[in-house]
Design a protein that fits this description.
Blueprint (H helix, E strand, L loop, with lengths): L12 E4 L2 E9 L5 E9 L15 H19 L1 E12 L11 E7 L2 E7 L6 E2 L2 H6 L2 H28 L9 E13 L2 E13 L2 E7 L4 E4 L5 H8 L2 H25 L2 H5 L4 E8 L6 E11 L5 E6 L2 E2 L6 E2 L3 E2 L5 E10 L6 E6 L7 E4 L9 H18 L3 H5 L22
Antiparallel strand pairs: 1-2, 2-3, 4-5, 4-8, 5-6, 6-7, 8-9, 9-10, 10-11, 12-13, 13-18, 14-15, 14-19, 16-18, 17-18, 19-20
Length: 414
């Protein structure tokens, strides 16, 4: 682009008092214009050629970041295996809630189950029943029985230490397992977790990197010191998290059915409804549902630019009734805003990210519209019902001293 010499004028270039102002127009997808000005000081008598190169750096960086995260989500598969144990200090006489329960979760799907009434470890996936031999279930049943005794003993000791009444309900929970990353059929350890909670509060956890226990509250310090004084316990805990748990994931992943391995595609919808608080605004929602595995990227975009997460409300990833998941994100916008909004979704099952544009329509608050919005949410409600058992045992807030005894002979089969 030539500019800056006397008697010469270029489109969108003005020379004023030795200053060249270069104007640039960026047009939005809905005919909205953006103006950018760059000032350069030069001599009015110059005979040089000037070239202008414009890079939309902000948009480029956003898109590049999205593509990188999308590629990572597609190429790097994540898997997890966790076992969750929950013990109550007394029966609660509610259907489906037992004094002791244990379950295994592979990639957030239950694969086995045990409760204090049946006292038998059973498969909850067809492929687990078909692939795992009878001795696996027998040994697992014995391991769960030992853990049930361990939990019951420590809850009784806790009640005595706090001089509590037998009418009080107390809860002790343990979550242990690991997460791995798989790329090109190579499985790598990512994270290991072994943590205890008491009456719904963090109590004690294992620091895998430092090979030591961490007390979340002062009441857990005696247990931390006792367990750290046993080098074999910490060594075995670290070995299970980093090696045995990873081996189990690798083994189970080879047994899973085709549907589990291939995953489920996300069904993506974008809709809006009038805000209850401000009639001039709309609540725009992006919803992805029916996807598996759990990891997903869902971004609300305005004029092709991702909105910052701190401006967006999220439900977090929630379970559906069919062992898939859903995620909803919402943002409040002006009703007459001429911007283009859409949802950007990336998931392992998608060859390329999916982009769904908002059509500009919205719901009011008539009975019909309210019913429609409720229908879009019903899957999350049904899925949330699966969490009732966990929520029931997490409402207590008491914290007391308990010197937990070490679990013995239970590291091989969970």
């Amino acid at each position: 682009m030539q500019a800056g010499c006397p008697g010469y004028r270029c489109p969108n270039v003005e020379v004023r008092s030795g200053v060249v102002e270069i104007k640039s127009l960026m047009r939005g997808r809905m005919s909205r214009e953006f103006r950018m000005s760059v000032l350069v000081c030069i001599s009015e008598r110059c005979v040089s050629l000037f070239w202008v190169m414009v890079l939309r750096t902000h948009v480029f960086k956003k898109r590049k970041a999205e593509k990188m995260r999308s590629d990572e989500a597609t190429e790097m598969e994540k898997h997890s295996l966790y076992y969750i144990y929950t013990a109550l200090s007394k029966p609660v006489n509610l259907p489906g809630i037992y004094q002791f329960t244990a379950m295994g979760l592979l990639d957030d799907r239950q694969i086995d189950y045990y409760n204090s009434e049946q006292q038998k470890k059973i498969p909850t996936q067809k492929w687990m029943k078909e692939k795992m031999q009878e001795d696996y279930w027998e040994e697992g049943t014995q391991s769960r029985k030992i853990k049930e005794q361990w939990f019951n003993l420590n809850l009784k000791n806790l009640t005595k230490l706090m001089n509590g009444s037998e009418s009080d309900l107390h809860v002790l929970q343990w979550r242990t397992g690991c997460e791995v990353e798989e790329e090109r059929s190579e499985v790598k350890f990512s994270k290991g977790i072994s943590e205890f909670s008491y009456d719904g509060e963090d109590f004690l956890s294992f620091d895998d990197k430092e090979s030591q226990w961490v007390a979340s509250v002062d009441a857990a310090l005696p247990t931390k010191r006792k367990w750290d004084s046993d080098p074999n316990l910490n060594k075995n805990t670290k070995s299970y998290l980093e090696k045995k748990c990873v081996d189990w994931i690798d083994r189970f992943s080879g047994y899973t059915d085709e549907k589990l391995r291939n995953g489920s595609l996300p069904n993506v919808q974008v809709f809006a409804k009038r805000s209850i608080r401000d009639k001039t605004k709309l609540n725009l929602t992006c919803m992805a549902t029916g996807f598996y595995p759990k990891d997903v990227m869902l971004i609300i975009r305005k004029n092709l630019i991702s909105l910052p997460e701190d401006e967006v409300e999220s439900t977090g990833i929630r379970p559906n009734h069919d062992e898939t998941f859903q995620l909803r994100k919402s943002v409040e916008i002006n009703e007459d805003e001429p911007a283009e909004y859409g949802c950007f979704v990336s998931h392992r099952t998608l060859e390329t990210p999916d982009i769904i544009k908002w059509d500009g329509k919205y719901f009011g608050h008539s009975l019909t519209d309210t019913a429609l919005i409720a229908a879009l949410k019903v899957i999350g409600i049904v899925g949330g019902a699966m969490l009732i058992v966990v929520l029931v045992v997490l409402f207590l807030k008491k914290k007391k001293i308990i010197d937990l005894k070490v679990i013995s002979s239970t590291r091989r089969v969970l």
